[in-house]
Amino acid sequence: MRPCSSGVRLHAAFDTHSQVCAVREILKERGNPESTVVVLPDAANMMPLVSELGGEFGDFNISLGYPLKRSALCCLLELVVKAQKTRKGDKYYAKDYIAAISQPLAKNLGILPERRLTRVLVHKIEEALIAKEGSALGGTIFVGLDEIEAEDKIITAALGTLGNMDIKVSPEELKDVVKGLHRVLFRPWEDIGSLRAFSGALGEFLDILVRKSALEKYPLNLKVAKRLYAIRDEFQRASFGDEEFDTGEIFRLFSNTIGHQMLAFSGSPLKGLQVLGLLETRCLNFENVVIMDANDGCLPRLRRHHPLMPHEVTASIGLDMLEKEEAIQRYLFDRLIACAKNVDIVYEANTGKDRSRFVERLVWERQKREKDLDVLKPVNVGFAVETKQDARRIEKTDEMVEFLKGHRYSASSVNTYLQCPLRFYYDYVLRLEEKEEISEDVEGREIGTFIHELLEKTFARFVGEKMVIDDEFRGYFFGEFEKKFGYTFRKKMRADSFLLEKVMRYRLEQFLKSEEERYVREILYLEKEFKEDLILPGGEYKFRYIVDRVDVLEDGSVLVLDYKTGLDAKMPKKTEKLLDMEFIRESVKDNVRSFQLPMYYYFEKKKHEDAEVNAGLY
Question: For the whole model, what pTM was predicted?
Answer without folding.
Answer: 0.69
